[in-house]
User: What shape does this take?
Amino acid sequence: MVGNAGCGRKESDKTSAGGPGAQSAYVPPPPIKPEYTFAEGLREKHPAPAMFVQQFLETCLAGDYAGYRLLASRRREPESRERFTTIYHGIRGLHVESIEQHSLPELAEEVYLVVCKVDFPPDSKVKLRRKTDKVAILAFKEEGEWRMLPAPAAMQPGSETMSESDRAPATTSAPTYPWDEEGP
Assistant: This one.
C-alpha cells in the first residue's frame, strides 16, 4: 500500500479503472479502518509532497484501488488488487515520520524520501522484510503529476549507507517493496 511491486500479476488484474471487465474501484474494508498521522511540522516544511502523501494515504486507506493505481508511478506495475487488499487489511495505521528531498536526477528534478512507521496488529499476516517497523517510498512528479514509487532497498530504513549506484530506483521487475506476506 505504501509501495508497489510488479511481477506476478494475473491477466484479470490488468484492467484499468472503468475499462471493460474492471472490478469495483474499492476493495472491501477491514473490520477497523487504518489511520494515519504526520510528525509535527512536516506539512509546513514540505507542503506539496505532504499534500500528495496525504492524498495517497487517504486514497489507499479508503480502499480505493483504482485511485491507488492512478497515484502509483508508471515506472513499474502497481500492486495487484489482491496484494493491495492484503496490505490494506494487514495494517492498523501509519505515521509519516519524515519527508526529505533527495538528489535523484535520473528520476525527477524533485524527489522526496518519505519514511513511515507502520503499526501492525498482532495477528497481521503482512510483515516487513527487515527488522524494522518503518518503510520508505519516493514521491516525485511524473508526467506533471505527483506519483509514488517504493524506495529502493538501499534507501529503506535500516539499510546500510547507500552508495551512489544504489540511489536510482530499481529498473528490473524484481520487487524492492519491503513487505513480506506470511502465507497461511
